[in-house]
Amino acid sequence: MTKYALLLLIGSKCNISLLPQVQPGELSVIRLFFEWNKATLKSLASQKVASADSTLIASLDNRSWGIPLYWDIASPDSVNKKSVRYRFLDKLSSEDLPKDIYVVEANSNGAKRVIRSFVIYKNKVGHYQARLYMYFGKQWEMRKITELDTCFLSPKLNNFIAKRGLGFNSDDIIISHITGGVRKVQESEYYLGGTLAMDSGIKELIDHGY
């Protein structure tokens, strides 16, 4: 397949990024990568505007600065195919998944850091399942599929943001809703430690999912 350069217009201001040597099949992954990163950063910005807690605002500022470094991107309009997020999307693009999924990024930062994500969806008989993916040696591996007894994730993910200290999560978690045959990020909510509500119904998955 012939490689080519693509001028991609991004956003209403039509910022132009030159993406050399792009394969046609990669365009959907690149578009989703942009959408996903921007949606997560939008969550952090929205929470900051809505908060009057200076300590919480400082934490949100810290994540807004630090998370692009973890994604290994220079800006929300840049692409890095070696990014942990890009590699995850590339992995999902080759898998048979329903059109409506929730991606839960729930790294564990204990004595040994574990990079993991769950993909939650309803199977063909209407039961919730979660696929666990773990990041080893610069690649994602699907480790297991778990049947869920409870899962209450639904659109308007910001409804699951609890007052800090009342949520169950000890580490930060990001939950994203992605839909469609041509995948589109509907929303991506960032939950600081202690802010993901029990109402989400995924505590057991997060605590014992690997």
From TrEMBL:
Please give the name of this protein: Uncharacterized protein
> What species is given as this protein's source?
Chitinophaga agri
